[in-house]
Amino acid sequence: PGxxxxxxxxxxxxxxxxxxxxxxxxxxxxxxxxxIGFVPASSNTAGQPGHSPDQDPADIIKEAISTGYRYxxxxxxxxxEKIVGSALKASGVPREELFIVSKVWGDKMYEGEAAIKxxxxxxxxxxxxxxxxxxxxxxxxxxxxxxxxxxxxxLLAGGCVRAIGVSNYTIEDYNELKAVxxxxxxxxxxxxxxFLYRKTTIDFFQKEGVVxxxxxxxRQGKEMNHPKIQEIAAKHSKTAxxxxxxxxxxxxxxVVAKTVKKERMIENLGIFGFTLDDEDMHxxxxxxxxxxxxxxxxxxxxxxxxxxxMQDNPPAPHAITLD
Length: 323
Known about the structure:
By secondary structure, the chain is an alpha/beta fold. Helix content is about 45%, strand content about 15%. The protein has 13 helices and ten strands. Strand 7, helix 7 (about 170-180) and strand 8 (about 185-190) form a beta-alpha-beta unit. Helix 3 (about 80-90) packs parallel to helix 5 and helix 9 (about 225-235) packs across helix 10. The protein starts with a helix and ends in a 20-residue tail after the last helix.
């Protein structure tokens, strides 16, 4: 039964997708590889390993693929693309069935075009692929992100990237880019969950035709015991994680789920066989506090200069739409 469940979930994960403005389809759920096999020194949780030392990191990713995940979310910053590459190879899944995304980090964006191109070559070499389904600007580094995106436009024209996008962009960052971009980003990957529901920002990007990918969709597991989440989960005979994931996909938002446990991988895929009603959605929509928005703001200003020479003397904060 476990294998049958996994294969039926795999089929659901493959079928359920959201259209992008370039005509391609984006899987509605993916597997996040952050902190598997490597924890970046400048991570906000640098002292916390992503899994127990007896777990082989490549095996974790291989397990995710065998469970049914096809969208694999990677990044230069994660420092583990070689590990991901070995898992992709060992999985035996044909490249055309996989949807592989990576992101270029601020240090390379700061260095400029040649560094970004060299990093891209390193990424596809480490991943063992000859193209990426999508390449993203990881954070909008002030004074650098627009030029970095223009390098991605060149990579797209060269054919080694099938689509390009952004990550952690506010409305203001996007409008700065929009003034000069030739190709509209297909996605913006930002934190989205009921505890950080920035409706103005989400509505803006969806109106622009930019698909939203959500990281921390499950709030890093921190809110699984919240009474309202538990109540909605019990009502649908689902888990808290499934309620959080379902809330996103019901809004047309892609979920990047991260776990190192097989049972959780299976659980996180189980977000397609039920629907949250209007009452559930309304309750979940109302859980964001002013404190959460302030926490987001502080993290944003920290991360846009992280690992760049300007982090010790950052530019004056520009105004951003918080909600």
